[in-house]
Write a structure and sequence with these properties.
35% of the residues lie in helices and 24% in strands. With 104 residues, the protein is of the alpha+beta class. Strand 2 and strand 3 form a beta hairpin.
């Protein structure tokens, strides 16, 4: 297996764990914007997103416990991490695990 394949599997496991624990929300039609990386850490793998990389910013709405309003949090992701996040979100939904919209 190539180094890229190993890294991809490691990212997939990390994303699945973050979905399971609720550290990452599941994919569910959030607004997404793409552009060049800005050096921000990826919400999926914590590695910086360089200007040479494509950065996806996923707007996630979080309900505030003490207020009726929602707060929008932007989650920067590498393009390949975004794709893995979408796939793993689907797997969580298929298994009825938390981390996907509509799941406890």
């Amino acid at each position: 297996m190539s180094d890229d394949a190993h890294a991809s599997q490691a990212h997939r496991r990390l994303i699945a764990e973050r979905l399971r624990t609720g550290a990452l929300p599941g994919y569910g039609g959030q607004r997404t914007f793409g552009g060049p990386g800005e050096g921000m850490p990826c919400a999926c793998c914590d590695e910086p997103i360089s200007r040479a990389d494509v950065q996806y910013d996923v707007d996630h709405r979080e309900a505030q416990q003490l207020a009726a309003a929602e707060q929008v949090r932007s989650l920067p992701m590498h393009l390949h991490c975004y794709r893995l996040w979408v796939e793993e979100s689907s797997h969580c939904s298929d298994r009825g695990q938390p981390g996907h919209p509509g799941q406890p």
